[in-house]
Amino acid sequence: MPKTFRLTRLLVLVLTVMSLLLSACGDQSTPSTQGIGQGAATAQPGQTTAAQAAQTAATSTGQGTMTDVGTPRSETLIVQTFDGKAANPDQQNPLNAYAIWRGFRELGWSFLWEDDTATGKSYPELAAGLPEVLNPQNTQFKVKLRPGVYWSDGVEFTADDVIYTLDIAFQNKTKFTRVAAYTSYIKSYKKIDNYTVEFETINPSYDFATAMGVYTWGAAFIPVPKHVFEKQADVTTFKNTNPVTLGPYTVKSFDPNGFWQLWELRSDWQRSGWGNLGQPKAKYVLYKDFGSEETRTLAFSKNQYDIDTFMSPDSIQAAQAKNPAITTFSPTLPYHDMNDACSYGVYLNQQKAPLDKPEVRWALALTLNLQQVGITSVNGQFKSSAVPIADTPITRSIYVDPVTTWLKDFKLADGYQPFNANFGTELAAKLKEQGVADAALPKGDAISQSFGTGWWKNDPAQAEKLLNSVGIKKGSDGFYATPDGKTWDLEFVIPGDWNKVMQRIGFSIADSWKKAGFKVNARQVDNGEFTTVQNTNNKFTTMMNWSGSCVYNSNFLNSWRTMNPSNVKDVNSSEALTGNFFRVTNTKIFDLIKASTSMETTSQPFITNGQEIMKELIKDMSVINIMNIPTTIPTNSFYWKNYSKQDNFYAAPYSWWSSFKKTLVNIQPTGQK
Amino acid sequence: MSILQYFAKRIGLYLVVLFIGITVTFFLPRLMPTNPIDGYIGQLQSRAGQTLTQEATAELRSSLEELYGLKGDILTQYFNYLKRVFLQFDFGPSFNSYPQPVSTMIFGALPWTLGLLLTTTLLSWLLGNLIGLVAGYFHNKRSATVLEVIGILLYPIPYYILALTVILVLAYFIPIFPLAPTFPNSGFSFEQVGGILYNSALPAITLVLAGFGWNILSMKSLAYTTKEEPYVIYARLKGTSNWTRMTRYVFRNAMLPQVTALVLSLGTVFNGALLTEILFSYPGIGLLMRTAASSGDYNLLYGAITMSIIAVATAGLVIDLIYPLFDPRIRYR
User: CATH second-level architecture of B115-294?
Assistant: First the structure.
């Protein structure tokens, strides 16, 4: 036999063996598709393949498809993790940095008060009612606890647990890393009886229920079980792995590498911290990281999980094309949830020349072509907001509508009216012109609900006029130069890959400014440097940010109480700010904030102050607020249905907010096995 | 130079490299524009469920400086660091996952990285060199051309594209392996080991495919050149078989640069394989380093980089020490 032939034959043999091996592997791992071959109820011909193939990693046990972690798929709600991989999965002590994004706030912990994210109002959870104010200064409060609430190990939750948690937090406040929010807020506390605790705060407090409970996404104060913690030699290093919980779920198992965590419903869920909310429908909840966006899209389209987080619009579209059970928050533009507490904006260092001049800041706002930016960066899937907060169903009637009415008549010093109330209508028309299907576009009043109440005009000519008025003129290179004749190099910090939506919006804004004649240097940074730039005057010129505008209901102080003179540092200071990231120096705003700290946060005078603060921020153009945070949270209704959606909104749909508990109570199994 | 002098010189050089590397590792993160305390506070303020009051932020900042060991001048911090690293191999707590010790995090990730990368590096080296040897030695045969083409086709494919292709083929279109792995949580049993192997298969296949193309091409050209050396021609004239000439004459001489490349790549195994870990959700040291760098977790960064420096320096030392075994000429210099 010729040697060449022998070698070729060897090659063929190797390839055959490899193929056989792969086939053998396939036989073992391919699940039974009995009972799941119908695909989604709405599946079209030819699309059932995705559904059938969905159960790739599962095995048939007679009770339907099983998950990779050995639970029946039909009883398991599977959620993409918010943070990918947890760095410290076994660290489950909420008094220190812990694996926070693995469902603890949503399933394991319970708080004194929760927030109804559909209305923005607090409601009691562990407490029996809202806090009772005991003195006219609003510094003393009585809190009644709900009797009949039990820890997952069968011990009753009482005032002793609250007192013990506060005791160890105060005793170790320099060692615990997650207690400062309340150890710097509470002055004293005492137990009255097994179900009553009294508190005294350091300052007058009109937001006790949200300061000690939930404002939006979770509470700072998390009671820990006294009977467990008091047995530990050192509570500051105690990991509390597989914790005794107050919520209706307990940790069944978790990946020590941090990629997944499985929760199981307590058999006594009714007497858990929020058992009174109703029965959570999923017996198991699995938080799992499905990897890069590419693998997530593939896994999602194969029904391997039910709720995604921050998937890009392009990937959602790709997944939807493969699987009609995948839906966005809204069937029409802007498709995604726009109800986050915070909003995206351009923050400007108002202390740094030439940004210290309002004319310059206004010029930047008027040259930011938001229509173009929104279409380029997020395919028109955004809701604009000229008011420096997110425009949500909760804030609209309180703040956005009244301030918008004022904006329609608002004029700059030279009499120019910068507000364009038709922004939404023009955007809809532009999108239609670009080929977006008519059915996907909002009509009539829905335009304002979808695209916002208006934004600034795009008027580079007026911007140039404003700049010229303060000595900034275009040089021979076509870029604006400062009064001394030097080209103005404008640094614009934007997030790197860790926030792709902001990154894309940031680049698009830089492009818009460049076209208008600003020499912009868009610099991407990691999230660590991002915070450093945000906090430090001498490192900050302009940046994309969201952290200064988080106003979820009438209580703007939660975000803006740090706007005060102590948070105004020298322009060259390297000292870190502890708030006031807008760099406000307007004393009228400081006075309004100070006055508001001694007002009931839902009272009309408080709300009027809030509106006045917003007007002052706009007059100064302290921040160029852009849009609500577009949160893409697609869901898959192959195994579960009745998620919170635009037309069925019962709670913020985010799987990483504690309001996710309402999702668990409201979802329904589809019956797919 | 005696063999002892040779060893002493190499070991001395090794220690100097370690000292310089560890010193640079200490100072480099401090030149980064990231502040770990700002990072942690920012995380709390904006992403982790609290809006901290001004007082709380100031209080927390002070506590964190104390806990992270960032109080005091930089020289004091440096000497404390050297003492801890050299005497106790202790890198302190992770800033982002305080109070979790860095060593626990590194030693948690290391077995995964080593398990995957050592196996795949050795496998791709072995396969690549064997195929390259055959392709180079029988360079005028059609089957050798086929083997060479495999190498030429695989080598230039960007890793990202290769990995996605493997995922699409073996996890999506032919769902043999999982799209997103679920590694078993703990304990030891055959089922657990099977689970780990099954879930690691895709990244392993990709790494082998990505690695062995270069080995094929490199060994093929070495084997082809060596085959024409006078001592190989002499052996052929003496009537030795093809097998003997290929393995004992060509391979032994051609493998010297390949061994160097192998040991150096084994040293870099400690850096992890970031892209692989991201794409395949694989728990390794690469992801740890990336998180540490982006969040300014100095201690974790020190720990991971120090491990890497030790590994690369040790790999270099090992090459120097074992080279005389492969190349007798060195023994006579």
Answer: Orthogonal Bundle (1.10)
With a CB-CB cutoff of 8 Å, which residues 2-41 of chain B face chain A? 32-41
Helix (H) or strand (E) holding B11: helix B3-27
Distance in angstroms (rounded) separating the CA atoms of residues A629 and A652: 13
Residues A257, B183: C-beta atoms closer than 8 Å = yes
SS3 at position A628: strand
CB A323 within 8 A of CB A40: yes
**Inter-helix orientation angle B252-268/B190-227, to 10°:** 140
* A511-552 confidence digits (pLDDT tens): 999 999 999 999 999 877 888 899 899 999 999 999 889 999
Cβ proximity of A122 and A130 under 8 Å: yes
How far does the CA of residue A26 sit from the closest CA of chain B (Å)?
A: 5
B316, amino acid identity: G
Q: Which of A579, A590, A640 is nearest to A616 (CA)?
A: A590
What pLDDT does residue A2 have? Answer: 46
Q: CA angle, corner A346, sides to A343 and A348, nearest 5?
A: 130
Instruction: Give the H/E segment covering residue A347.
Output: strand A343-348
Query: Closest-CA residue in chain A for B182?
Result: A68
Angle between helices B159-167 and A293-301 (to 10 degrees): 10
Question: For A295, which residue in chain B has the nearest alpha carbon?
Answer: B179
Sign of CA dihedral A616, A620, A622, A623: positive
Can you tell me the distance from the alpha carbon of A358 to that of A542, in angstroms, rounded to the nearest whole number?
Answer: 14
The pLDDT tens digits for B75-132 are 888 888 888 887 878 888 887 777 788 888 888 888 888 899 999 999 999 999 998 9
Please give, rounded to a whole number of angstroms, the shortest distance from the CA of B152 to a CA of chain A. Answer: 17
Looking at chain B, which runs of residues are DSSP E strands? none
The vertex-A149 CA angle with A148 and A155, nearest 5°, equals 100
Buried b (16+ CB within 10 A) or exposed e, A79-109: bbbbbbbbbbbbbbbbbbbbbbbbbbbbbbb
Q: What is the pLDDT of residues A272-331, one digit of tens each?
A: 999 999 999 999 999 999 988 899 999 999 999 999 988 888 899 999 999 999 999 998
ipTM attached to this prediction: 0.78
Cα dihedral sign, A82-A86-A87-A88: positive
B168 CB within 8 Å of a chain A CB: yes
Q: How do the domains of chain B map onto residue ranges?
A: 115-294
Tokens coding B249: 């004459």
Q: Which domains does chain A have, with CATH numbers?
A: 100-289+635-669 (3.40.190.10), 343-628 (3.10.105.10)
pLDDT average, residue stretch A88-113: 94
Answer left, alpha or beta for residue A310, where phi above 0 means left and psi between -120 and 50 means alpha.
left
Measure the CA–CA gap between B76 and B87, rounded to whole angstroms.
Answer: 16
Q: Sorting pLDDT into bands at 50, 70 and 90, what band is B330?
A: low
Alpha carbon distances (Å) from B301 to A69, A219, A566, B2: 32, 31, 34, 40
Written as six digits, the tokens of A43 are 């599946």
Distance spanning both ends of chain B, measured CA to CA: 7
Total length of chain B:
333
pLDDT digits (tens, 9 = 90+) for A39-87: 333 333 333 333 333 344 344 445 689 999 999 999 999 999 988 888 8
Q: Which of A254, A497, A527 to mutate to test the interface with B (most CBs of B within 10 A)?
A: A527
Handedness of CA B184, B187, B190, B196 (dihedral sign): positive
Span of A81-85, A497-501, B253-257, B292-296 with lowest mean pLDDT: B292-296
Banded model confidence at residue B51, pLDDT cuts 50, 70, 90:
low
